[in-house]
Amino acid sequence: MESGREVWPRDPKKAKQAIKQAEFKCEIDDTHETFVSEASRKNYMEAHHLIPLRMQHDFENSLDVVGNIVSICPNCHRLIHYRRDKDKKKVLELLFE
């Protein structure tokens, strides 16, 4: 438990693999550019779980798999986590297509 909520383990290798498969592009809008990461020497992207890990208790299999992880730019990642629900619905629908 972290700050009163359950935290599920994440494998950073799976996140890196998902970002690499997306060719270091934002899967919401592949024209989004960010700074170049020191580690990868590519566009900096962040991994986001489509089905949140907090839902793990509803699934038999792990949600921390490459198929459930998308590559998105930091701006879009913040949008998903902090935008009003009705506004982020369109963005999430794009990722589930």
Automatic annotation (TrEMBL):
Organism: Bacillus cereus
Gene Ontology molecular function: endonuclease activity; nucleic acid binding; zinc ion binding
Keyword DNA repair appears in the UniProt entry: no
Entry superkingdom: Bacteria
Keyword terms of this UniProt record: Endonuclease, Hydrolase, Nuclease
Residues of the HNH domain: 43-82
Name by which UniProt lists this protein: Restriction endonuclease
InterPro entries: HNH, HNH_nuc
